[in-house]
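ok trying again, last paste got cut off:
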Amino acid sequence: MFRFAPYVLKSLWRHGTRTALTATGAAIALFLFSFVGAIQDGLADLGRHSERQLIVFQANRYCPFTSQVPEHYTATIAKTPGVKDVVPIKVYTNNCRASLDVVVFNGMPPDKVRSARDLNLVAGDWSEFEKHRDAAVVGQVLARRRNLSVGQRFSIGQVTVTLAGIFTSRNAAEENFIYTHLDFLQYTRGLNSVGTVTEFEVRLADGADADAVAHAIDEQYRGGPIQTDTRTKGVFLTKAVGDLVELIHFTNYLGYACVALVFCLVATTTVMAVQDRVREHALLQTLGFSGRRIFALVMSESLLVSLVGGAIGIAAALAVLAWSHMAIGTEGVTIAFAPSISLALTGLGVTVAIGVLGGCVPAWQAARAEIVSSLRYT
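nice, full thing came through this time. structure:
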């Protein structure tokens, strides 16, 4: 079939403007489809890194600014059956509302930053972070977005820190965070949080039942001055971004609309191409071309237009995502839009499917056309 590639290319070039417009439409639609896919992957990624973990939050609170749980709860929670480790965390964010430029500080005991998080320091030194109370390690994405470098002193909101290191993480959302000392954030002027934390991150022992441990923790403080609400980390994060989840789920329809648009474009272009060459296909049949061969030629044109346009759109989307490091956050939770191989393969699979489905009917019609009537076609 490859020996007929020049014929296929010449046929498409014959109506170059129409072919270019179709490929451009496919590129734009697949660009949007890839962005939607990146958003969906970012949302799904929230739960992938939260196995065997619970979050203990103040009951009836949502934004991190409003949750203040006594730090001394740490010892009691640690003694709860099924609990392996407890990490007190103070969260500070420059914006609790949905935003594309949310900066989240996580104040933790210095030793817990290294043991409870899978961070790879690519610049700076852990010892510098541990020695200085106002030191911070910053995710690589955030450092690039804010043009930060090791040793630099910077302020965000009410917090001023010195950058001791820049890290990467397997969890793309982590790279939008800043980690600093727990007691530093607690004593930061204006936060009014001495002796309190925003939440506790609880790691479960092997075989422990998450729901049972969560219930046991909440029962201990049900009659206390500060009641708690304990959930698995995945449920907690999804709940925190509840409004965004609804919006992100709605973007699915945008993705479906993009697929439908490309299908209509490719199918219309292929139908027009077949109608323009009815007599040409009849002549090919008189020269010995079988219906199967003509079907394959038309399908090749449809698939090529769809694949070229779609590949350009997918490549452009992945490049923009990799360059911009886009992320959206709300209430201290960040959803990263990260490019991935699976996203590219999904987009290419959709593009191939559209090319096949869009060209199937007109290719079948061209292959089944009668020679005599086709030669009389004007």
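cool. DSSP finds 14 helices and 14 strands in the chain. The longest strand covers residues 83-93.
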